[in-house]
Amino acid sequence: MTGFFEGLAEFSVLLAVLYGVTVALYFLLGCSIIWLNNRNPERRIQKKRRGEKRKAAEIRLSLASILVTCLSVTIGLFAQYKGWAMQPWDFNWWTAVPLFLLCMVLFDAWFYFAHRLLHTKYFYKYHLEHHRSVAPTVWSNDSIGLVDTALSQGFYAVIVFIVPFPPLIVLANRLFDQINGTFGHAGFEYFASKTARRPSPLLCTTYHDQHHAEFKYNFANYFSFWDRALGTISPVYDRRVETFEKEAPPINLKLERQIAGTRKAET
Q1: If pLDDT is split at 50, 70 and 90, which confidence band does 48 have?
Q2: Is the CB of residue 216 less than 8 Å from the CB of residue 115?
Q3: Which residues are registered as beta bridge partners of 223?
Q4: What is the tally of structural domains in the chain?
């Protein structure tokens, strides 16, 4: 019985640490990107929509969904620690990059098909809240229902029983996903380039922004190959990226007088 309570205490401490770090990162990233957005109003993707009015609701839901995400990660890491999952591969500098890329590819596949599932008639009720943010903001990334979160982020609790990733690889993917997702919901485009459109499999913010605006396209997270292979990529995505690439002004880091027809992004 003592062992049970000791294990529960260890599990709880790990969960608390992951949750605290993730929440801190959520606010740090959000505020930092808003700082950048305020200096680059011309880079807003959806010119006629504003999603900032949903800030309070998005933050409230995010604080709950982040707990579910961290619970999934904690389950996976704790299962490895207790020896219930596969024995992790050794972590070496020459294996770190290929293992991280493999983890990204597998997570992207999980996310794509879980996301497609959430858009089916039965499961969409669990995903609806996320799509209330038609014009997403930095606070929208984690603003998803708890069932939705369990499906899309359940990867971390499952993958350790299938592929013996070292804990650092799992945590690195979680960190990258948080950063990538926040920029993906930022509503402003900073990464449009040749590397974010055909034939490259990489993405930019426009990719997921189109998913929120058009609903039926662009389901993947890191790469475009699942959407391209299965015909779910927006037919105008590559063209929109190329337009941004050619027409967007240089990124500005100074807060200047806003030009006519634009307004400061709200915080």
Answers
A1: confident
A2: no
A3: 202
A4: 1
In a domain, residue 52? The reply is yes
Q: State the Cα–Cα distance between residues 148 and 130, nearest whole angstrom.
A: 9
User: Distance (Å, rounded) from C-alpha 135 to C-alpha 98?
Assistant: 35
pLDDT at residue number 260 = 43
Nearest partner of 141 among 180, 182, 113, judged by Cα: 182
Which domain, by its residues, includes 47? Answer: 19-247
Is residue 224 scored above 90 in pLDDT? yes
Residues 6+ apart with CB under 8 A from 186: 33, 37, 136, 137, 138, 205
Averaged pLDDT for residues 61-78:
98
211 in a structural domain: yes
Q: Are 51 and 134 in contact (CB under 8 A)?
A: yes
CA 218 – CA 232 distance, rounded (Å): 6
* 61 is a domain residue: yes
The Cβ-side half-sphere exposure at 199, using a 13 Å CA radius, reads 0
φ, ψ at 134 (rounded to 5°): -65, -35
Q: Which amino acid is at 246?
A: K
In a domain, 3, yes or no: no
pLDDT tops 80 at residue 262: no
Q: Are 68 and 144 spatial neighbours (Cβ–Cβ below 8 Å)?
A: no
pLDDT digits (tens, 9 = 90+) for 90-142: 999 899 999 999 999 999 999 999 999 999 999 999 999 999 999 999 999 99
